[in-house]
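Workshop exercise sheet. Pairs work together: one partner reads the sequence aloud, the other fills in the structure field after running the prediction. Swap roles for the next sheet.
Pair: D.N. / O.F.
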Amino acid sequence: MTVTHEDGRRRVIIEGISPTVDGGRFPVKRTVGDHVHVEADIFTDGHDAIAASLLARRQGSEQWVEIPMRAVVNGNDRWEATFRVSEIGRYAFKVQGWVDHFETWHRDLLKRIKAESDATVDYLNGADLVAAAAQRAEGPDAEWLRERSELLRFANEPAKLRELATDEKLYETTLRYPDKRFATESDREYCIVVDPVIARFSAWYEFFPRSAAQQAGKHGTFADCEMRLPYIAEMGFNVVYLPPIHPIGVNFRKGRNNNPESQPGDCGSPWAIGSEEGGHKAIHSELGTLEEFRYFVAKAKHLDLAIALDIAFQAAPDHPYVREHENWFRKRPDGTIQYAENPPKKYQDIYPFNFESEDWSGMWEELKSVFEYWIAQGVTIFRVDNPHTKAFPFWEWVITEIKRAHPEVLFLAEAFTRPKIMYRLAKLGFSQSYTYFPWRNAKAETTAYLTELAQTPVREFFRPNQWPNTPDILTEFLQIGGRAVFGIRLLLAATLGANYGIYGPAFELMEHDPVRRGSEEYLDSEKYEIRHWDLERTDSLRPLIAKVNAIRKANEALQSDWGLKFHFSENEQLICYTKESEDRSNLILTVVNLDPHHTQSGFVTLPLEELEIPRDRSYEAEDLLTGERYLWSGPRNYVELNPAKQPGHILRIQRRMKFETDFDYFL
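Structure field:
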């Protein structure tokens, strides 16, 4: 029988590579400047020593950078190496391992020398291995190794042989030229998508352009939106998200408070996209012109604000697509086009696309061109409406295609659906994702959910964006909690999540009335009518929001999700957690009272050793919200929070105490 095998002399086994998503089927996510820590199980038969390396490159480059891997201490054949990603785009890495015969020889020789059992043949074996390395070497190293090989071969004094064989320079130089003829490589290259830092750390502010007019009763314009930008920038946000800015359908237009019948003057839902004025590449005429939109985008950029545009792939009945591409929509037996439904809800003003259309490829190309059109206008962030109701293969294709040409572009998935579907969308390429955060109010459920997002393999592909409210979501907690509950949800969203957002001005003005009892829809929702907001109200949460965002910008620990760890408090109404920067120079402890109606108090317990806080010294906890400083000692410290005054602490823990002298003391 003939043996068929790629090469049976490749004896090293490579398994359990991380970070990967579904065994490498999907990319992992990182942002510019991140360190990628790679681990793998690497071993071989018998007792030979092995070596391993990590190979990494930016896609488009043919040059692999090789990084030696080292065995993890007490790691059970686990190996590790790290590299840094410095540019946006895609990177690839793979792992290789090989039997290192020189290292095996050197290790065993040292044992023999110690036992005084070394023999001449041991040094002849070493001479052969060094001579082989000389053939692989270049420049002066090659000649030097040849000389050392000869000395090992012909030296006849035991002391001299031992001196030559254990020379540190010989060891290091030989290892630089390993024998990789029978090296094993991981069975695939693993992909990393590297996004701009704003994908990891962002604060979003959503508002309706048509409600931005200075005068009540008027339709807002891009000029009005431009005047709103300093207000948003002063609160510390860096992403301005606009609901759809396209023409709104006339046929079956919704009335106020989601009335299926509109009245004269009703403006309809911006998500009912398309009319005789145009579709997804057109602008609602009352908002302004394309040139005015470009000017608005430029003004935002001047204030370090990125514009995120809503992309909703659906069409109003009078959208040009319905007339020009009727086969892109599903028809009912009576010949009419099927409107959107989520029983018992009906959306007669929206036609969903049929992703099983005979002309699916033509539809894909057209929908891709919508993204490309708005990218050309300066938009690089898209909030995608209900992506879980569109075909998964489409999203994988279109996001890959867009990011191939525009790697700076980001996509936020608005998919409040089942967890596996939300995770699949993230795997397919969505840069950020809405989460269940709005409905996680109790301590246990918040702790469990956020731990899953921050401390399990989910974090390799799913970037949460925490929103306490949206135009569709006014939770019961926000309806009944008063001013304090808005402060609670703000502190939690902004400190639990490196990415978070609010729908304003409804949030800072504490809009809390539902359209009816038991509903999460706002009364007089902006989705169906123009609202006028008094941004100068004295009770606005604007100062608190600005303070929280300033704290986030000043503290690296709050700019990533991965450092999140929850800590014990015996009071179930007090939630306590830390975040720490990667270099451990910045440690933030947040304690929030989850009860908006009553003062809550108790002891919080910190794992001092894990946080590198000396157990036998006091340490300072500075409240970044108030400027107050507390001198704490030991793992258990008392906290009391009156939600009417301050719903939480954001405490910077000072491991190093500074005194009013010329000396720094490290405690």
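Discussion prompt: Confidence is low (pLDDT under 50) at residues 657-667. What would you look at next?
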